[in-house]
Fold each of these.
Amino acid sequence: MNELDLQLHLHARVFRTFDEWYADVDDGLDPQPDNPLWWGSYDSQRAAIDAACARIAAMHLAHQTPDSLRLVV
C-alpha cells in the first residue's frame, strides 16, 4: 500500500512463441491475456524478464506521488 492507500496487484508473464520471447504485465484483479497493461517482445528470456521487472518498478514509482495516478505505458 502506498501513501494514497492504493494497492497495486500486478503480475508479469514471460513466454516464448517460435523464436521470440514475450513479456506482459497485467492487473492481478483482472488478468486477461488479451488486454495487458503493457507488453513487449524480446530476443531472449533474460531480456523479457528484465523488461517486465523494469515496467513493474516504473508502475510502482508512478503510484508513489499524488499527481501520478495513471499507469506509465
Amino acid sequence: MDPVFSLSNETFKYFLGHTAVVIAKTISVAVVTGFNRVSNTAFMNEEDAKAIIGGAPDGKPKTTPTIDRLKRMHMNDLENVIPFVLIGLLYTATRPDPASALLHFRVFTTSRVLHSFVYYFAVPQPARALCYSAGMLSLVSMIYTVFSHGAL
C-alpha cells in the first residue's frame, strides 16, 4: 500500500492542489488589503502612518470601508481555510474514494473563491451565506468521515 501523504496517492494530490488555491486566495486578500492601505494612506499603527511619506499628517491610524471589508474577508478566510487544511489532512488519512475526496475539495475551494467575490462586491444575501454554507457542509462531511473511521 502506498503512503497516504505521497504524490502517488491521488487524493493527496487533489488535496495539495486545492489547498494551494485557497491559501493563495487568502494571501491575495492580504496583498489587496496592503495595497489599499498604502494607496489610501490608511494604516492601523501610528508608526506605520508616520513612516510612510505622504502618510496621515497627524500620524493617527485610519481606515476606509473597503479596507474594513477586506479585513473581514481575510479574517473569514483564516477561520475557514486553516480548518480545511487540518481537516483535509485527517480526511486524506482515512483514504477516501478519490472521486469523493475531489468533490469535497472542489466544493470547499469553489465556495471560498465565490465567497470572496460576493463579499468584496457586496452581493446581496443570501449569496454569501450560501457560499459559506457549501464550504461548511464540505468540512462537516469530511469530519464525519474521520469520526466514522473510529477516530473516537
Amino acid sequence: MSDNSAPTGPLDPQSATPLYVQLAEIIAKQIASGALAPDRPIPSENRLAEEYGVARLTARRATQELRDRGLVITVRGKGSYVTPTSGG
C-alpha cells in the first residue's frame, strides 16, 4: 500500500526531532522568507499531509505548533493564515 518511491520532502523520519516539528520548521522558514505572505493562507492539513508524505494528524500538529509560536491563526471552516506580524 505504501509507495517507497514517493518523495517525502525534506523530512527525516530517523531524526530525534518529531516529524510535526520538522514540518512546522519548514513552514516557519517559508513564512520568514516571504514565500508564505502575511494574511495569506498556508496549505491545508490535507495538502501538507499529501505533499510531505505524512499523516494528516502530523500536519495538524505542525499547524498547532505554528499557532503556538504565533506564526499562524486558524479560522474555523476557513483555514490557517499567516499572522500579519510574522513576515519578519
